[in-house]
Amino acid sequence: MADLLGTILNAMEKPPTVGDQESRRKAREQAARIKKMEEDERRKKAEFRKQEQAALEEAASSETKKPDTCPNSNYRDKYSQLIGTSAAKDAAHTLEANSAYGCVPVANKRDTRSIEEAMNEIRAKKRHKQDDTGAHSSSS
C-alpha cells in the first residue's frame, strides 16, 4: 500500500514554487498590461468628458440664439366664425336655475338627523302605511 501511494505522489507534477523566476516574470508582465489598460481607460474617459462638455456648451449657446417667431395670421380673424366677433364678456351670460327644478341651497339638502332618528321615521311611515292598508281592507 505504501509503495502504491509513493508511486502516485512521485508521478504527479510538482506545483510551481513561490520563488520561481518564470512565475515572477509572468506576474510582472500581467501587472504591466493591467496598468496600461487602466491608463488607456482614463485617457478615453477624459476625452469623452471633453467632447460631451463641448456638445453641451454648443447646445446651450444655440438655444439662446433662437429667433422670436411670430404667427403669419391672427387666430381671432381665422376662427372668427367659431368664436365670434363679440367680446367674451358680452357673449357670456349668467346661468340661472330653472324654476321648475327649484333653487335649493346645499345646506338644506343635507340630512342632519342621526341614524336612529332616520330609522325611527322610516319605521313610523311603514306602520302608518300598514295601518292605512289594514283599515281599507277591513272596511271593504
Automatic annotation (TrEMBL):
Q: This chain belongs to which protein, by name?
A: Sperm-associated antigen 7-like protein
UniProt lists compositionally biased (Low complexity) regions at 53-62
Region described as Disordered: 1-77, 118-140
Q: Which domain of life is it from?
A: Eukaryota
PANTHER family registered for this protein in UniProt: SPERM ASSOCIATED ANTIGEN 7, SPERM-ASSOCIATED ANTIGEN 7
What InterPro entries does the database record attribute to this sequence?
SPAG7 (IPR017330)
Residue stretches spanning the membrane: none
Sequence ranges of Basic and acidic residues compositional bias: 21-52, 118-134
